[in-house]
Records
---
Amino acid sequence: MQKEDAYNFSIPKRQSPIAIFLIVQKLIEQIIRQFWPILLVVILNNLDFQTKGSSSSEDPYMTRILFVLGGISAIGSIIAYFKFYYYITDDEFVIEKGLFQKKKINIPFDRIQTINFEQNLIHQAFNVVSLEVDSAGSNQKEISLQAIKREEAEAIRAFIMTEKAKSQSVVQKETQEVIIEEERPNILMRLNPFDLIKVGISQNHIRGLGIIMGFGFWIFQTVIDFDFIDENNPMDMVEHELGLGSLLSFWVYLILALIIFSILISLILTVFQHFDLRFFRTKAGFKVVSGLFTKREESANINKIQFIRWEDSILKRIFNIFQLGLFQASSAAVNIRQSINIPGCYADQINTVRATYFPEEANLNYSTHQISPLIIGRRVLYLGGIPALILLINAFFHQSVFLGIAALLWPIGIFFTSRIFHKNWKFHVSEEGILTENGIIGTQFTLLKWYKVQAVKTRQSIYQAKKQVADLYFYTAAGTIKIPYVPLAKAQEITNYVLYKVEVDGRSWM
């Protein structure tokens, strides 16, 4: 007997009692996320009162107000838990909820795109999962169960996917078997600790650097508020202590320290997000399981994947790894968070995914094309000329030689990078699909099958219309692929051919 047979999904059920703690936890996170400036002011004011020896009567009422609001919201969330029910009818997933106004959500099986699991530390301690159902026709996840037993969640997913497969038409019968999840999927890759280090080092460190700079700025402002340094010109103190000869070294060491700390932050975030990442090939398509404190399980059905994208960078090339993205049709697929991203993939694993998504690709003949060199002048004008003009104006008013030199060098740098951008932008066209590649210091590849295209559009600015070039757009259920500055005749030829292929191809994009 299959494990889903042990559950009667037609009976309305509440979530696990653990959901109460998770609702309160999420509430606290939302309060902190939305009101952190107020909380920061309260904390700094309390520190200021303690530093200056103020009495407790001077403590502002804001703290008490926040606690009262938090308590009221927590009580409301607990009551909402007892008003939340879920069940399954013959062909629908149903949610009933509402504190003061009852709300019923019915999602037919044929609208359900993906069912994913997530586990934070509380989930793992009690062997429960958060179940998220993503459906077509909505801009967000319509069903999210905070905590149910993992066995029940797996049974729900298996039941829905099985019933969904049974209801498919005869035209889709040949792909029916790929909808049902297999018990023992084939593992394609697993990130070991050394792989995690490579992924962390090769990540974009701008985010980590931004966190450090923001935290440093907060510390700096806090120090100023407590009058530990001169607010008017604090760098005079540094220059006085170090001397003019050592000031340059101070900045060099500071920049190096920021780079090192940003790498460490990237490593830490990589471990948190991708710890023990496992990438599986299943009958349905692919599945990814990863996470240290919060374990997330995401699935991508092969017939829902609209296009795939992989990219490298200078650091990734050193380690011979790629970042892989599977973009599947879903209500929030245009959000990068909803696409499935696998870091640290090697070339053979990329080829396996390509062969699964586009089996006939290896036997196709591709014609290679480049975009128009006119894009170089446009990039130099907008990315080089306008910033250079702003720098020149600032250099004039501030009498700065440094800004003047930067204003002269900036367009030159943009010119050379634009030449590289043009040289690297290629698109390879075949009878069944297209492969694009572009980048300056790294290369991004995108593979798309024609029958996945929902619409094609060419767009021209006034300048492009005069020069007989156009931007070419391919719209899919998972986002848009753009090719800039295509010769107009070529863009029209591709547009007509793709529209023809979509019309005569009997396969569904889903």
---
Amino acid sequence: MAKFFNNGDFRSGYYRDQTFMMAIGELSVQEFFAGLYAHTDLEKEPNQG
């Protein structure tokens, strides 16, 4: 994680740290909302697999 943070940056700790995952490009907004609304298709929501 240290590679991606610079002095003055902050992170918001939350379930699965989605803010960090979005910042490094590993989580899209579509995947976030698919998880939020419990989409059952693993192609659309891979986090719960």
---
Amino acid sequence: MEENKESIEFWEEKKRETGKDIIFKSFARFVGETAKGSTNLSGLIYATEDRVYFEDFEKSSMLDFLVKKKKKYDKFTMNFLLEEASGMRKVSESSAAACISGEAQEAKPPGFLTALFNSPLWEIKFKSGGCYYFELFEPKDLISLINK
């Protein structure tokens, strides 16, 4: 897939910001963090050789052009070192939601029927014990980076 000029410029800026080549990029939805509540933010997840980044997009609709926004947009960004992660695996959305709300300690893999009808979530587990939960559009290369 050929990138347009704006996309190329965006990724060049991220390379300047991080000081490293971007070796993975995907659209993503950051669903939440263990016992911290749901976030449900859409954005980009990308990685360099040693760190993973996520940043959200400002949500807009056709209505935004007609009605002035009351709330100021605050960009959400976060990152972590790859060495802090202990693994990445596919989990069911319901068990991830239970972990995010603090009702469960460990997410479970999706069952056969769940996997057929629902998009999986991806759990990134940390050596410190916490987890991040994402819906990823292209997870394969990130799985390879984290599970090496």
